[in-house]
Amino acid sequence: MHASKNPVVPPKARHSVFTQSWIPAVEKLPHKIQKMLKAAKRYGVRLDALAYATQIKNELPIWFHIGADPKLSRLNNYYYSKCLRDQHGILTVGQMVDFTELSHPDHVVDASIVCACPMCINEQAEIRCLDPRKCRVTAEGAVEDLTEEVIEANKVALRKGGTLIFNPAVTVQKLSDGYRALGKAQRTNDCLAVQQLRVTGTEPADRVTVSTGHLVVTIPLADRVVGGSAWFGSHDERNISLRSSENEPSGATGELKALILALQKVPKDTPITINVTEKSILLSLTTDLPRLEDVGWMGCENSGLLKAIVADLHERIARVKLSMLSQRKNPEGARGSPDLARLGAANAVDTAINLQIKEGFALDGIKLVSGTQAVFYRGILACTEVPIRRPTLVNLDIARHAVKDLNGSLPSDEQLWKSIRDKDIPKAIRVFLWKGQQSRAIELIWEKCEDMWRRRIRYGTVLGCNLADFKTVHGRRKTGTCRLFQILVTEAAHLIWKIRCERAIQREDPDDFHTGLEIENRWWAAINKRLKMDKLYTDKARYGKKAVPEKTVLHTWSGVLWNEENLPDNHGSDNQGF
């Protein structure tokens, strides 16, 4: 076979760089097209799906096929391939398959003899085929080398509290649904999403029921611990209990980890019913699954665990049913699952979980036809690595350990950053939460702040104040106390910043520096202003659903108001100050 190692792509064979394997000479293209192709390469735009319908496969170009093996790639510029492309007009996989299936009864098999059958003579005369026999052999070789209503029912079952069915379909029915961007391309010619087949003659296995559960344990001055469980039956050796404490886990985290281990113990051809206690898990695996896969699981908590579970469920050949764990329908599971979770939480170390997904079932990235500008923007931010400065790391650690002194748990970087955007903190103050320096104004302001709070304020406390979580002896969150703490600390930090700016810009002369009385008056003015704003925000006629409940304002400022014992019961909306 005479074919160049890196063949030139004939114009007639070019269809799309996304459905074919050839690479365009970008520098020779118009500027706008160059920018489009560079952006597509940068953000990983590709044709990527678990499996394709036959119709889509037939519509793909046969030349420079995206899934072709090296042998088929060599046919692209083969001598008789040019005849198939130029003379026979074969451009797609479907056209090539149809050409090989044409009836040719009088064809001479012996390659040394020139075939004079009517079909070969007709092809030579009408379409000027160079050698019909060779063209047919080339076409057959190319074809041989190519790689070979549940949702609506779930919505009804969800409304009625019934059993939902996992949709195992992995085949894409439209070519436009196969294009994805961002993330890693997982589809290759050697790893397709192919479900196992049941051995012929074997009886279907009995349905297995597994009930998952969790238990959240918060230990003072320690990290949160979550126990997860998967209950198969009383004294069943497959029962699972585990412990999870990394990265501030939620209850769903322990339950999902237990489900992963449980699925590993059930054969792929065994029907299984999964009873869960978290509704978010049920929705993520059924009605919300298409949307989550379309947006690349963006914004979904525990996405790594859910993707591993979905890949396992896609691989199964037996029907999978899911429902909420009910005391009425499954009393044994409702009793056994919490007991196992309690045992798991008592373990000394975390349970290791293997999240490796079988090749061919790991779908990543955002579907182009489903993504919006906002979705792609968040996706680009998520996959862009931003270097973190050393001072930022120091500040985060200072805030992290200060929050641990308040709550007893270490928050993550994400929680610290999100806490700055608290709705109770004015935007002007959020910008300055991380700033703080030493001066007479700082000492006096913190002194007044501590007088109201009766607790020492440190730099880390300022950075992590929005994550303060004070609780009663019974474990209930003291909303008013937490809110007052946020207000005092953020107002103090903001006032310090303003005084520092005034000293640097307006009062450079030491004789003009702020006096202690002036600083104290400005402190009380700032706090009284926040109190007044809180009272104004209780106006439901003006703010509607966004109005702050009067009860919240009363709980926030209780114990710090001047002459509070003589105030009326509805003083949360009057003009009383300090």
Which stretches are poorly predicted, pLDDT < 50 over at least 5 residues?
1-6, 188-195, 197-203, 434-440
Task: Give me the CATH fold name of the domain at 151-169 and 198-362.
Answer: Nucleotidyltransferase, domain 5
Main beta sheet = 6 strands, mixed
Number of helices: 23
N- and C-termini, Cα separation: 94 Å
Text of the CATH class of the domain at 151-169 and 198-362: Alpha Beta
Number of strands: 11
CATH architecture of the domain at 151-169 and 198-362: 2-Layer Sandwich
Overall average pLDDT: 73
Strand content: 5-15%
Radius of gyration: 34 Å
Kindly report the spatial arrangement of strands forming the biggest sheet.
3-10-9-6-7-8
* Secondary structure category: alpha/beta
Shape: extended
- Estimate percent helicity: 40-55%
Under CATH, the homologous superfamily of the domain at 151-169 and 198-362 reads Ribonuclease H-like superfamily/Ribonuclease H
Keywords:
extended, 6-stranded mixed sheet, 578 residues, 3-stranded antiparallel sheet, Nucleotidyltransferase, domain 5, single chain, 23 helices, alpha/beta, disordered N terminus
Indicate the topology:
Elements (H helix, E strand, L loop, with lengths): L30 H12 L3 E2 L3 E2 L1 H6 L10 H4 L5 H8 L6 H8 L17 H9 L5 H13 L5 H11 L3 E2 L5 E2 L6 E3 L26 E10 L7 E7 L8 E5 L6 H14 L7 E5 L2 H6 L4 H6 L8 H13 L4 E5 L6 H15 L20 E2 L5 H11 L6 H18 L5 H7 L7 H4 L9 H14 L5 H5 L15 H27 L10 H21 L3 H4 L6 H8 L21
Parallel strand pairs: 2-4, 6-9, 9-10
Antiparallel strand pairs: 1-5, 3-10, 5-11, 6-7, 7-8
Helix pairs in contact: 4-7, 5-7, 9-12, 18-20, 18-21, 20-21, 20-23
